[in-house]
Write the structure tokens for this entry.
Amino acid sequence: MADVIVLAGNVGIEKASGLKVDFTPGRGDASQEQTDVESFAVLEPIADGFRNFQKASSSMPAEEMMLDKAQLLGLTAPEMTVLLGGMRSLGISNNEHGIFTDDSNKLTNDYFATLLDMSVQWKPNGSEKSFIGTDRVSGEKIRTASRVDLAFGSNSQLRAIAEVYASSDAHDKFVKDFVSAWNKVMNIDIA
């Protein structure tokens, strides 16, 4: 089943990017009989910045938890950045924050270009967990983002990487780098 899930993800990435995504089979599955369901409760995620998910009970900032997850996955800062931006461009967000594209069927660098748009002013949306982006001139609400999303615009090192992917001539590099980071994560458990 694990192989089928990864293969389906790869097909989705191929359709969205137009590139071939390599697939390596060999993931192991456990049957229900081999699984102690109660013992897995402690493994349930508290937060996943790549999907813009965070439990209300979490007291740790979401962006710190995302960095921790990226480190556990063995991702470099550029890999983490391109993976998150690609997932957002494909509409992957638990709460719709950070979806900055008109067509989530295409793998594009829209997320970065839109995130770094200086005509937008960001303000907390009643809490420190989500933000509203308003047009600096009209004051009209135009998008929402999470703390994780805004980290890529406010942290100097992540912003530098985001600026590379936001450039008008970076689409091919972005797609190639996303597929590479995707494959790295999808193949972590293959020995």
User: Anything to note?
Assistant: Strands lie at 47-48, 53-54, 120-124, 130-135, 141-146.
